[in-house]
Amino acid sequence: MKKSILILYTGGTIGMAKTATGYQPTAGLLSKLMAEDRAFSHEDMPYYDIIEYTPLIDSSNMTLHHWNVLAKDIVKAYADYDGFIILHGTDTMAYTACALSFMVEGLNKPVILTGAQVALTEAHSDARENLISALLLASRYCFPEVAILFNHYLLRGNRAHKIDAIGYNAFLSPNYPPLAEVSSELLAHTHRFCKTDTRTLNLHKYKSVNLAHFHFFPGFPLNTLEALLNLPLRALLLQTYGSGNVPTEDKKLFSLVENAIARGVIIANYSQCLKGHVNMGSYATGQALQQIGVVSSQDMTPEAATVKLQFLCSLSDDPTWIRQHYGRNLRGELSD
Ligand code: ASP
Q1: SS3 of residue 43 by DSSP
Q2: Does position 70 have pLDDT exceeding 90, yes or no?
Q3: Cβ distance 274 to 174 under 8 Å?
Q4: Which of 67, 134, 173, 238 could in theory staple to 99 by disulfide, Cβ–Cβ 3.0 to 4.6 A?
Q5: Distance of CA 129 to CAs 58, 115, 123, 132, 253, Å?
Q6: How far apart are CA 144 and CA 74, in angstroms?
Q7: Is there a domain that residue 336 lies in?
Q8: Ligand 1 centroid from CA 214, angstroms
Q9: Does one domain contain both 139 and 45?
Q10: Which pLDDT tens digit goes with each residue over 117-170?
Q11: On the CB side of 73, how many CA atoms lie within 13 Å of its CA?
């Protein structure tokens, strides 16, 4: 039987048109172009319905409210469709993919985010190909996870990172191989899909959380970290060197961090390197953080680390519970 897919259209370059002030999302344009294009009604394609949000946004304007609405709409329509496609700007697509993967518990249907580097209105656009690939994959394979389809590759959404502001190959999954590839044939690596989620469908919501990042660089002024830790933070992500290392010469760094942890602030360590994982046991410069209770982000992307902390802090006020769950594999976002 022909499958039915629900397309949730949030905005992004994919449906933008050139205006006097630059490219802007244009209401109704994408549905019109899809209806005029025979490829979208080809017999191999699924049926689709489109929900177009108002206003359509550039994804730089994405907020927790948008995440909550998207997840609620997926859950509301869950029984009526075989899969979901979210059309989204590329700038924050990886963040939204992470958020949805955490919010929708018990997901057993495909959710694919896609978009484009060049608008569908342009001759050299990548929008049409991305959209066709997403529709084919969502209707052909019943994978129980949130993914990103871009430039012929289907990536686990909470493993993806935007690496290119211009090129068609905009996303990389540095620590997990692609779930599927689209060439003259669709090639799905089904053994890489998440396992079926046996829990009943359940929706979690995001709340606003006081969270910050601190990026280490040689010569960083320690008083900036001190000022940050004086704020009423729930969590701080330290973006460290290599496998999770920081300078150890000035012990004040460690007393600042230790005091914050004692006050209940979650301090997590993620690496400036995209590939590989944090291992605070490797070097003395990393062990010093481990000993005072900094938690490891293991091989999570910066997006997954951030969005997971927002998620856990939205669910609980208990730092011990948050620290435990941060280190666990919840939705395939880190390698066991
Ligand atoms: N600024 C755009 C957005 O993220 C870029 C894109 O769509 O690719 O909405």
Answers
A1: coil
A2: yes
A3: yes
A4: 67
A5: 21, 10, 12, 5, 50
A6: 13
A7: no
A8: 25
A9: yes
A10: 999 999 999 999 999 999 999 999 999 999 999 999 999 999 999 999 999 999
A11: 19
Closest by Cα among 152, 109, 158, 122 to 3: 109
- Residue 107, domain extent: 4-203
Two structure tokens written together for 80: 């009526």
User: 10 CB under 6 A from ligand 1?
Assistant: no
Rg (CA), the chain: 21
- Residue nearest atom 1 of ligand 1, based on CA coordinates: 58
| Ligand 1 midpoint to CA 145 (Å) | 23
332 part of a folded domain: no
Give start and end residues of each alpha helix (H) in the chain.
29-36, 64-77, 93-103, 127-140, 222-229, 252-262, 284-291, 302-315, 319-326
Q: Are residues 56 and 12 in the same domain?
A: yes
Question: Mind listing the pLDDT tens digit for each residue in 237-286?
Answer: 999 999 999 999 999 999 999 999 999 999 999 999 999 999 998 888 88
- The verdict on 97 and 243 lying in the same domain is no
Question: Do residues 68 and 195 both lie within one domain?
Answer: yes
Give the Å distance between the CA of 285 and the centre of ligand 1: 38
Domain with 32 in it: what CATH number?
A: 3.40.50.1170
Task: Evaluate whether residue 317 is within a structural domain.
Answer: yes
Q: Whose Cα sits closest to atom 4 in ligand 1?
A: 89
Domain boundary among 203, 231, 259: 203
Residues 142, 259 share a domain:
no
Specify the number of domains making up the chain.
2
21 is known as an active-site residue: no
In a domain, 145, yes or no: yes
Instruction: Identify which of 297, 331, 314 has the alpha carbon closest to the alpha carbon of residue 97.
Output: 331
Question: Which one, of 115, 103, 139, 150, lies nearest residue 312 by Cα?
Answer: 103
